[in-house]
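Exam revision sheet. Question 4 asks you to relate a sequence to its structure. Input first:
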Amino acid sequence: MKTESKNKKIRCDFFRDLYERALTAYSPTLDALERNMKQYKGDSEIDGSRESALTVRNITYEIVESQVSSDIPMPKADAATFSESRGRNAQAIERLLRSLRVRLPFQEFNDLDERYTYIYGASVAYLEWDGEEEYLGELGAVRLHCLSPKELIPQPGIFDTEDMEYLFLRLTTTRGELARRYGVTEAELDSLELLSESDGTDPEGDAAIMVICFYKDEEGDVCRFIFSGDVTLSDIPKYYYRKGEVCSVCGEAAGECDCTSELISVNLTHETLPYDIISRNGKRHPKTTPVIENGHLKISHGATLFEPTRLPYYVPRSYPVVVRKNTSSEKSLLGQSDCEFIRPEQQAINKIESRILEKLLRAGITPIVPEDASISLNNSVFGQVIRLKPGESVAQYGKVDTTPDISQDVAEAERLYDHAKRIIGISDAFQGIDQSYHESGYAKQLRISQASGRLESKRRMKEAAYSEIDRRIFELYLAFADEPRRLSYKDAYGRVHSEEFNRYDFIELDTTLGEYFFDDAYLFTPDRNEGAEWQREAMWERNLENLKAGTLGDPTSPVTLLRYWQCQERAHYPHARENVEYFKSEVESGGVVV
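Answer key, structure tokens:
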């Protein structure tokens, strides 16, 4: 995308106009998303009617919440082409991502992500590198955010973020935060776009709208422009490139020349090594490298020529945005919303429940008394005493019961509820609702498995989104993690080992061209052997069966029992760690090395 002007005001007007056009094209989708959220929250509006439902039986909330899973897919990395060094690198990537599953707010992320996906049909993951965050002496870390699809404004007519020339993120923050982070002056505060101006939700006017535009330049590099109202907050061409200052005359880095000229900001593509670098894998990047021309060493006066080693900086090529779809939809950036599919049933149930309520409110018991009865009746209990006149019969008094029959209404509401569940693929067994008939535990488990199989595509889409998130995280650490990242992991025997993620391990030398490059050809998939929280009890039972069957060894041997409790620890069995330590001491006291 061309953005030739360097004038600050012109650039802001250009991106604001682009944003307004994209927002207008996206408005029908935003209206549909808002309608879906209202339905999830129990909106009483009846389509095509001015009157609202008297009561709402919120089956949408029940169906959505029954699908929400706390299962977070665990990462798995494999080299695209295997070699011993690539295999070690794949393990380092996997252990880095597993450590981030704990450090990053994945629990909160998953909780929002699950609901957004089923309600809206999609959710949006936004990743950014925070170069100022420090953790155990390591500078820089990834920040992860879960956004609503209402906060993503895409390029019109394009249905994949990686195919877009540009996209926008519309985020809410405070004016104070914009002043601190982007240096907004007092004079510019009044020119910001305030949330109260958009929807009136902030009467005090402190909340502001910040719009982030990610776009690709003519070379395909990702750039970023941030604005609010008429104020430009940040403008970074080639967003993922390292930035540095060099002399405007000789081009040397700041402090490395004697010129008195001003410094200019440039994009850094390479770094010159001041000393040899030896990674944890034993790979050595020397301070100097032989000069190669046309695939041959350059020799002068019988000696090989050397030059300072220049290693490239890694530059990601993807937007820092990942869209998770519920289920795919034709020519749509977002997926299919569960709310849209069950809206007819929700509307019909609201009408029927309103009719039931109306019937019950009009129902009552009307007393019958003689025309000349000298009593007055009210709704109090035992508030009146009827004294019969001489010769008067009790049969002259009676009642008319006008209580309506609502059994057909209730049956129809339940039938519509079953329709809605079948559309989504949810059974009573999946929701944990007791059945009216008896069946074996195995039969019930099989039926739950068959019902959940209809939801398999949703789980696959979730796994695909998490794999894309893992790739983005890996690329950000390749690009900006200068210090090696210290990691730890447990082996199959429960022993803790240290590990390191070092971006220099991924640098290879093209011996033909004499140039270094980053090897980022790794495949990311979910590890289906872990992360299935709802299968823990089944795993515990299976481990016990293996112990009794002797598949782990002699069930009476301390070594076998140690192995059994290590399996239980990996399956998160309560207090398994204490048993592992006990049997480990028993084995070591017996002279067996584990």
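Marking note for examiners. The longest helix spans residues 8-40.
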